[in-house]
């Protein structure tokens, strides 16, 4: 008898975001969003992490890859057929807010946008693939950014509620897995994408950041309650960027520093969305940083009532920390900072590779919250080479994913309740952090390049056939 590590109903699939694959920049009455004004290339990360961005387009100076992306808007049938060939049980995607409410402030939803996602969901169901839908994934309407200041403005909650009610009512018979905000805690490091505003001065970041988070917590709870009422058989979760924080050594000062960093970055947003209340450690943090939130009378009750059904999270890397970094090498490639971990190798983009960290993450999250977990992003961004015969031999990607899936298997043996796994960028897409096509994650190669050239032709990589076997064997066949 075979011992199945993964449960029979395990949700294997892949993950994307609307702004990184769709294109169709102005089609279907779509409005402008944040991703539409972010240039491609090395400038993007600097913009995302530096103060003062003005959210304007300068087409003479920059290339904007999200405008066409990989043209999923027109090619979704071809792509979904490829996902089905791999055997996907689920496909994680997002709805572009500005396809439904182009400016974010309209009273009526845009029918062309609604109809597009009807077609996508119908195509997925044709192949028995369940959509897993992120409601807001780094694509806030630009109008809400410029005219309202993003999530700093409480009025945005009303606009978001109108949006979620429109999509829940429209798709109540087509979508049963939802998540509210993608990587909500990424607002700490990339507030432009997550919170819809640019910090103007580093010294001013605390108050607007946490006020914006508070508004998102209220909005998330409104969405959770609405989902439970409108689609009673659905499950709705949050989504966090999770990276376990290791102390650089056994110096108790470094251990305490790592603990504090982990609680603020990894757990604060999850505590709010799963436990439904402000924890004691954040209240001390507020006091020490002079943060005084504007909280309306019903907010805390609403947050308590609107807790999520599961935790969706991304896992790409771990993070190593010490108080005094002056004598250490910074881990500059790691998006979330820290110092270099001497025990880990790194990807082409400097992201440290740590499969054991995924098992650690699963155990930490499940020990803390005791609700189902869902790994909804995990993958390797790498340079891929198309050989003369057209093949793409991405053994490095297979090794990366194999080791992380093995870590999940160990987590399941540890007793973690894990719903599923959707590998990030199952088809090549525009990188959110670097705006590059050359940072490839997919099982499917897309002929599109950083200068905008390319035919958009799809090709199956070696990893396509490997993942096909992983799914077919329910995680038993992991070797090439």
UniProtKB/TrEMBL annotation:
GO terms for molecular function: beta-glucosidase activity. The active site is at residue 377. The lineage of its organism: Bacteria, Bacillati, Bacillota, Bacilli, Bacillales. GO terms for cellular component: cytosol. Belongs to the glycosyl hydrolase 1 family. Keywords: Glycosidase, Hydrolase. Transmembrane segments: none annotated. Pfam families: Glyco_hydro_1. This is 6-phospho-beta-glucosidase. One of its GO terms (biological process) is carbohydrate catabolic process. PROSITE patterns: GLYCOSYL_HYDROL_F1_1, GLYCOSYL_HYDROL_F1_2.
């Amino acid at each position: 008898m075979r011992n199945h590590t993964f449960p029979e109903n395990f949700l294997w699939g892949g993950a994307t975001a609307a702004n990184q694959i769709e294109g169709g920049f102005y089609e279907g009455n779509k409005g402008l969003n944040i991703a539409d004004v972010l240039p491609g290339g090395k400038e993007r990360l600097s913009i995302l992490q530096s103060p003062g961005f003005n959210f304007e387009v300068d087409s003479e100076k920059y290339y904007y890859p999200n405008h066409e992306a990989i043209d999923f808007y027109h090619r979704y049938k071809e792509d979904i057929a490829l996902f089905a060939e791999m055997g996907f049980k689920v496909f994680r995607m997002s709805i572009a807010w500005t396809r439904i409410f182009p400016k974010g402030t309209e009273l009526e939803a845009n029918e062309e946008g609604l109809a597009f996602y009807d077609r996508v969901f119908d195509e997925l169901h044709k192949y028995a693939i369940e959509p897993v839908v992120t409601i807001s994934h780094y694509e806030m309407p630009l109008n809400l950014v410029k005219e309202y200041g993003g999530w700093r403005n409480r009025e945005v909650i009303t606009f978001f509620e109108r949006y979620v009610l429109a999509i829940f009512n429209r798709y109540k018979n087509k979508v049963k897995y939802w998540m509210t905000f993608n990587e909500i805690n990424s607002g700490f490091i990339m507030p432009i994408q997550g919170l819809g505003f640019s910090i103007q001065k580093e010294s001013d970041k605390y108050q607007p950041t946490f006020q914006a988070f508070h508004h998102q917590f209220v909005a998330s709870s409104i969405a959770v309650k609405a989902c439970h009422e409108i689609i009673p058989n659905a499950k709705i979760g949050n989504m966090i960027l999770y990276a376990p924080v290791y102390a650089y050594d056994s110096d108790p000062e470094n251990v305490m520093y790592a603990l504090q960093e982990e609680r603020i970055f990894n757990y604060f947003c999850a505590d709010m969305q799963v436990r439904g209340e402000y924890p004691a450690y954040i209240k001390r943090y507020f006091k020490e940083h002079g943060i005084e939130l504007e909280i309306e009378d019903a907010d805390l009750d609403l947050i308590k009532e609107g807790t999520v059904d599961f935790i969706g999270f991304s896992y790409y890397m771990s993070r190593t920390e010490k108080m005094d970094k002056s004598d250490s090498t910074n881990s500059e490639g790691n998006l979330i900072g820290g110092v270099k971990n001497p025990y880990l190798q790194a990807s082409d983009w400097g992201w440290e590779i740590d499969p054991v960290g995924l098992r650690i993450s699963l155990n930490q999250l499940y020990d803390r919250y005791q609700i189902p977990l869902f790994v909804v992003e995990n993958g390797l961004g790498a340079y891929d080479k198309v050989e003369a015969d057209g093949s793409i031999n991405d053994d490095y990607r297979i090794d990366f994913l194999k080791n992380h899936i093995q870590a999940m298997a160990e987590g399941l043996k540890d007793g973690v309740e894990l719903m599923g796994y959707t590998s990030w960028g199952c088809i090549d897409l525009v990188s959110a952090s670097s705006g590059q096509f050359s940072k490839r994650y997919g099982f499917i190669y897309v002929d599109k390049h950083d200068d905008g050239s390319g035919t958009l032709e799809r090709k199956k990589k070696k990893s396509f056939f490997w993942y096909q076997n992983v799914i077919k064997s329910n995680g038993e066949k992991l070797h090439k």
